DNA sequence: TCGAAGTTAGTGAACGGTCACTTCGCATGT
DNA sequence: ACATGCGAAGTGACCGTTCACTAACTTCGA
């Protein structure tokens, strides 16, 4: 049947007995075409099984309807959530989002982004990772590039994503419940988020005049967190553990369990990430949930604003929220 | 400085004092160009900050170096892992992978895929969701479309991903350890994976002549799993729980804990997903890890084989593996 | 010394759409 | 009756690259 080459707009036009331009107008749903012709063209398109070549269209019109979403290499659930949010936002503005992974060193990445920007494939780009010099080197006439650096080159959270206001909330409320002596189980410091949580922990303890047993480096390893609790000297006075994520929190709870301590009766524990398994345990783990989708939406909406020539809205509503569950409670009364 | 229009290959050619075709050859790293000219062209490119327009290139050459990875809407960690695997495989063959979300009904999706296929944007497409009639309706001359239906239209695992051989392994080994009476905590049956795990549970119990307390519908809710264990009558004889995922397993462990039962001393529990938090608990949960990346790699390698005109390799090595941890052990000796 | 083959570079068309401009037909106003 | 304006449709150029040919020059063997 239909054999070699894909039908083009001109063949559709020939079959419908109109000019190619009329078909082009029809495809753009230009309403200055008479009903009769619209019908003829529709029939011809169906008959030839015609589908427009988007590459050719993009070449002439410089409009591709596509945005690029640039991620550093590596796998993180958060990035998928952000992507989902980005897609939602882009879709409502009639754009398609594509994911492109950027590997290599920061400078290489900038080069690659500039290539993509000038490739004509995208009308705008959102990068979740930092790109040195990109704003000065990019073509001012080219597609806008929004840098929302949520990750460094190893998919580690930075910036907004690494903010740790919830740590402050945890400590404040636990102090209200009578806790005086805390310990922090920290993640791997190559992660900005681990550093930030530690910083906020130290600051808050200090500001509120509380007591800290210290910061224990756990490197995101549950085993270390468990051992840290097991190693706590008898009578250390620690009643609350601020863990850098849910895995460490669960490791800590595991350590408490092995010592025969009750959580939260003897020890309160907080985590981070809102892992569904941590919510299923007894005790369910108090944690922090991060609204990644809204971060993705926000990045794209900034891009869309720039595309429309508007000033980019710089909303800074909080994206993370503490979720209080069973692993925290009043300090023991002893 | 550099102002309005992007420099083209012809401007580079003019500046370098050669023809545009020579520049084109240079860009393809065609080695039939004298060293002297190569040098002049390189200088001109650098001076003009020229970057090739990939859209124009794609239009003429019909080669875009891009593959599309089609996902149903929805968020799942697994799909990100598969994407990572797909990227690795594609990258090693010099292709870039783009993610496109397919929404709408199955028929709408097929239409959209055909549009994408004939859009000229991609040299091949991999769909992780079923596409009715796509093989009969697609242009035989167009880019190949591989359908690896791991998900249905709601991002629920189907096919290979829903296979549940590990359930068989769990039951067999637990039976070896003296367990005779089992219970299955099932997920939401709209998920093929939940149905498959239940089926394999029932079949295996039957085949080995074991005893089942029954299948309890838990709908992926930890609360239900916990309650199911709490509701187990005293002396039910159940010593092993096969839960459909880690959340249900942890809910079950939570129920056992509330009844004062020891895991695995009184009750063995298995999960599914290898959630890191479930591994951090005491007891660490016996579970199943699925190698999503290899699924992604495999799908792309099938596509690449088709692109090269080879027969697609249909490897069926197992993608999931049981991980035995502390939540399972010998049956109580009473 | 000359022709064949090989190497290096150039010329113009072509890819499949859209843009800018033109043409045609008809209603309208004076 | 004729200029004016507007809507509907057509004409040909153009977007930036690569492809298919062709041209010029070099090398080499007989």
TrEMBL record, chains A, B:
The keyword Cytoplasm does not apply. CDD domains: HTH_LacI (cd01392). Residues 314-334 are annotated as: Disordered. This is LacI family transcriptional regulator. InterPro entries: HTH_LacI, LacI/GalR-like_sensor, Lambda_DNA-bd_dom_sf, Peripla_BP_I. The keyword Glycoprotein does not apply. Residues 7-61 form the HTH lacI-type domain. Keywords: DNA-binding, Transcription, Transcription regulation. SMART domains: HTH_LACI (SM00354).
């Amino acid at each position: 049947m239909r054999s070699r080459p894909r039908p083009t707009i001109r063949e559709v036009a020939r079959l419908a007995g109109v000019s190619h331009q009329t078909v082009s107008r029809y495809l753009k749903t230009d309403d200055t075409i008479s009903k009769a012709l619209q019908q003829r063209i529709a029939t011809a398109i169906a008959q030839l099984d015609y589908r427009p070549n988007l590459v050719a269209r993009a070449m002439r019109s410089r409009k591709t309807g596509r945005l690029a979403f640039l991620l550093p290499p590596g796998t993180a659930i958060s990035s998928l959530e952000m992507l989902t949010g980005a897609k939602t936002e882009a879709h409502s503005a009639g754009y398609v989002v594509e994911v492109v992974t950027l590997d290599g060193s920061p400078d290489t990445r900038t080069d690659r982004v500039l290539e993509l920007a000038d490739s004509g494939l995208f009308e705008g780009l959102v990068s979740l990772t930092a790109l040195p010099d990109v704003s000065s080197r990019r073509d001012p006439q080219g597609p806008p590039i929004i840098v929302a650096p949520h990750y460094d080159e190893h998919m580690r959270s930075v910036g907004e994503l690494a903010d740790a206001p919830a740590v402050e909330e945890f400590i404040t409320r636990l102090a209200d419940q009578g806790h005086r002596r805390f310990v922090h189980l920290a993640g791997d410091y190559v992660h900005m988020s681990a550093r930030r949580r530690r910083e906020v922990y130290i600051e808050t303890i200090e500001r509120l005049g509380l007591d800290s047993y210290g910061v224990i480096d756990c490197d995101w390893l549950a085993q270390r967190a468990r051992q840290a609790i097991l190693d706590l000297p008898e009578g250390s006075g620690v009643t609350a553990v601020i863990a850098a994520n849910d895995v460490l929190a669960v490791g800590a709870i595991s350590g408490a369990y092995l010592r025969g301590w009750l959580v939260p009766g003897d020890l309160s524990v907080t985590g981070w990430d809102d892992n569904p398994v941590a919510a299923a345990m007894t005790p369910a783990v108090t944690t922090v949930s991060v609204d990644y989708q809204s971060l993705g939406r926000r990045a794209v909406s900034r891009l869309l604003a720039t595309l429309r020539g508007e000033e980019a809205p710089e909303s800074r509503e909080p994206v993370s929220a503490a979720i209080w569950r069973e692993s925290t409670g009043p300090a023991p009364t002893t």
